[in-house]
Amino acid sequence: MGRGAIQAALVMIGGSAAMAVASGSGRPVVTRFGRATVVCALMVRCGVVAGYLLAFEIVPWPVVFGVVAALSVVSGTASGFVDAPNRAMTLEYVLNGANGVAAGFP
Asked: How far is CA 17 from CA 12, 27, 40, 90, 97, in A?
């Protein structure tokens, strides 16, 4: 697209920040609303992938970076509600001596 690496990174940084924030609140939300929260977040991530594909097909080029940045934030938020709670739920059922090994599994 003729953009530099810094511009590409700036488009995606919102998603990283959103994931960091959502990871901190993901576990309490999953505890309150159940594992269906993780499933819903995975469905949102699938929708974001479809959104990326559609953005590059139907959105005018000058606007694509804004759309991708917004989708990145949505994806990062959904990722925070998937990754951190899944690790926590995995570690709930692991013996104390095997926590390090189990933490490596997604």
From this structure: 9, 17, 20, 24, 32
- In the prediction, which pLDDT does 78 show? 95
Q: What is the DSSP string of 37-96?
A: HHHHHHHHHHHHHHHHHHHHHHS-HHHHHHHHHHHHHHHHHHHHTTHHHHHHHHHHTS-G
For 19-61, how does the pLDDT look when each residue is reduced to its tens digit (9 = 90+)? 999 998 887 888 888 889 999 999 999 999 999 999 989 999 8
In a domain? residue 2: no
Residue 56 lies in a domain: yes
pTM strictly above 0.85: no
Two structure tokens written together for 46: 């699938």
Number of domains in the chain: 1
Judge whether 71 lies within some domain: yes
